[in-house]
Structures are given as C-alpha cells and as structure tokens.
Amino acid sequence: TDLQTQLQPLIGSHSLPFSLWDVAQKSLYLRNNQLVAGYLQGPNSALEEKIYCVTNRFFEPGKFPIILGIQEGRRSLACGTGDLPVLQLEDVNITELSRGGAETTRFTFFRSYKDGMWRFESAANPGWLLCTSAQSNEPLGLTLHPDAAHIVDFYFQLF
Questions:
Q1: φ, ψ of residue 142 in degrees (nearest 5)
Q2: Which positions make up the signal peptide (predicted)?
C-alpha cells in the first residue's frame, strides 16, 4: 500500500522509535521481562515502551520484513517455533540482526496495512500474528486465530 511504501525508507537500517498500541487503545509496557498490553493513563503513561524497528534485508522487501525491539533496539522480540510458538525478548541488538541471514527469521515480522491498522506476521511461524489479549495487563503474544479474545490490529506511529 502507499503508506507502507512511504514508511519503508524511513525505517531502512536506522532504528527509529514508534508507538504501538492495539485497537482497544492498550499500550505496551515492560513487566517481569515481558511486554504487556494495558491501559496506561496519567503518570503511568511514562511506562509505555517505545518500539524500535529496522528492515530485515534478508527477506523479500515486498513483504515489508521488520525486526522489532525495545530499549533503543537493544532487546529484540523473538518468536519460538513449534506447535504453540512463544514470544520472548532477547538481548540482541536489532541493528545487528538487520544485516540478515536465515538465523534472523525468528526475529522477523512481515507488516501488512489495511484500513489504518497494522498486522505483524511471524516470519518463523507463517500465519501466526502478533496479538494482545482482550484482557488488560496480559503479555503480548502470538495467535493463529484472530478473534474477540486475540486482538491482532495495531496502530503504529512514529514517536
């Protein structure tokens, strides 16, 4: 889409801060070494984690492959593989990962944009989407079946 094409050069190999929140208006924050989605208001809004991203040049650019991280990109979001893949944070810098290679697959998400919202599909687990729970203060996760309990549509805006 037009917006994806416009954002691609912005992201490139530079790590830029973005705000990411789900369509229920839950922001991401760090709790017990996990990214959690919750309603942050007033002084708690300072807890919101900025999401940093870079393009993974190993993958087909048309799929808009990105690597997501927090804390200026020093910690990366990674997907385990298996029947029920698990999302986790790893102490790997996203700019190092952006150089690509097959080993970066589990850190890579394909972005798609529709009707003003973004979805992020795991490159390591095709069909599995980044999701928040319909409940507040639950960890960010992955789902194969978007439904009322698993929110997969996000707003993604340069901070």
A1: -130, 145
A2: none
Nearest residue to 158 via CA among 14, 59, 40, 36: 14
Given a cut of 70, is residue 11 above it in pLDDT? no
Question: pTM, whole model, 2 decimals?
Answer: 0.89
Report yes or no: 121 and 108 within 8 Å, Cβ to Cβ: no
Q: How far is residue 79 from each of residues 43, 108, 143, measured CA to CA in Å?
A: 31, 8, 12
pLDDT, tens only, 95-122: 999 887 889 999 999 999 999 999 999 9
Average pLDDT, the chain: 90
Tokens for 7, please give them.
């954002």
Look at the chain and count its residues.
159
Instruction: Count CB-CB contacts under 10 A for residue 99.
Output: 12
- H, E, C per residue of 33-53: CEEEEECCCHHHHHHECCEEE
Percentage above 90 pLDDT, the chain = 80
Burial class (CB within 10 angstroms; exposed 0-12, middle 13-18, buried 19+) of 60: exposed
151/133 Cα distance (integer angstroms): 6
